[in-house]
Amino acid sequence: MGTFGVTALTAPAETEPSTVEFEMNFQPYGAMAATKAVLPAMRETGAGTPP
Length: 51
Fold this sequence. Notes:
The chain is mainly alpha-helical and 51 residues long. The protein is built from one helix and no strands. The longest helix is centred in the middle third of the chain and has 29 residues, at 17-45. The chain is rod-shaped, with a radius of gyration of 17 Å.
């Protein structure tokens, strides 16, 4: 089970990097994984939506 959504919101001046490390790693890697999953089909159809 992940810890997504458990980080408490704090002011940037009061936030330790370790507090947001999971989210900072998850967001770009999640976007890259999603892109890798759909890009081959998008290239094949020549568009971002199915025909």
